[in-house]
Amino acid sequence: MMLRAKQIGNISSSARSLFLSGTRCSGADGNSCTCPEDETCVSQRQKKRTDQLLAENPSSTLSSKTSQVDLWGKSGNVEKAWGWYQAMLNARLRPNVPTCNSMLSAFLRVHRLSDAYNLLQSMVDLGLNPSLQTYTLLLSCCTEAQSSYDMGFCGQLMAITGHPAHSFLLSMPSAGPDGQNVRDHMSRFLDLMHSEDRESKRGLVDAVVDFLHKSGLKEEAGSVWEVAAEKNVYPDAIKEKSSCYWLINLHVMSDGTAVTALSRTLAWFRQQMLISGIGPSRIDIVTGWGRRSRITGTSLVRQAVQDLLQMFSFPFFTENSNSGCFVGCGEPLNRWLLQSYVERMHLL
Q1: Domains of the chain by range and CATH?
Q2: CA distances from 25 to 90, 151, 241, 312 (A)
Q3: Residue 274: CB partners within 8 Å, gap ≥ 6?
Q4: pLDDT at position 10
Q5: Which terminal residue of the chain, N or C, has fewer Cβ atoms less than 10 Å from its own Cβ?
C-alpha cells in the first residue's frame, strides 16, 4: 500500500503484502510548524546556555532534558538532541512518549532510519506505547519516500508501533462505486479514536489523505476527507463568513490533503447549488505558506492549489498582493461550478 499509483492495484490486497514486507519514508514531520523560523532558528545564546547546562549538570530534571531534546531536534541538530536523550538515560530518567517522538522526528528528518528503528524498539522495550503522533510521524515520512529501502524500513517501523492506525490502513477497502465503504471504514476508526485530541486526529487525517492522494488512491483520499470534515476534525477549514460568502482554509494541511479537500469542497458547493438553485457569491481559498513550507514566501500547498485551479480554469484572482489567497466570485464563479467535471476534480 506504500507504493505510488503504478505500484498499487487493489488497496485491500496490496496493503497487506506491502506493509508486511515494507513501505515508504523520508524526513517529513507530521508535527512540523507553519513558520520556518519557529522550527529552525535557535539563538546562539540559548545554544551556549544549554551546552553549559549539559556539562555542569548532567543529572538535571526530566523536564529540562525533555525540552532540550525537543528544542535541538526541531533546530536540526540531531547530535545535540541525542546527547540530551542519552544524558536522560544515563541519569536513570525514564523518557516519556512525547520525548521519544521528538527524538524519532529528529532521526527521520535526516534519514537516520536505523537509529529511528532502534529508538522505536527501545520505546517498546521500556513499556512505552507509541502514540497517534508516533504513527503520524512515520506515515508522513512514508509519503515522501524516494527509495524501496526507505519504504521497507518505514513498513517495519509502522508495524512495530502496534497502533490501531496501522490496522486501519491495512484493512482499508478499495473504494466502491459511491465510496461509502471507505467512508464507513473511516468513520469507525475515528469513533475508535474519540478520546484523542482534535489536533492529534487532524495530524493523522492529514497524513492519511496526503499518503493516499500521492499513492494514486484519490477516490479513497476523497472519502477519508469527507468523513473527517463531517466529524469536525477540521473545524476551521470551511466557514461561511457572511451570507453566501465562504472561506476555504487550507493552510494547516499538506499539499496532497489541501488539493483533496479543495476538490471535494468545490464539488459540495456544486451539489448544494444544484439542489437549492443558490450559488456562493464569493469563495476565498486561503493557502498561506502551507504546513511543509521551509522558506518564507514559498508553499507547496499554494503551488499545488494554483496548479489545480489553473488546470480546471477556475475564475480566480488575488487581492492586495496576497498571493496565498485565491478569490472567486460572482457570475463567473457560479457558471464554473455548474461544469460537470467539478464533481471529479479530485481524481485528475
Answers
A1: 5-172 (1.25.40), 238-347 (3.30.1370.110)
A2: 31, 5, 39, 31
A3: none
A4: 41
A5: C
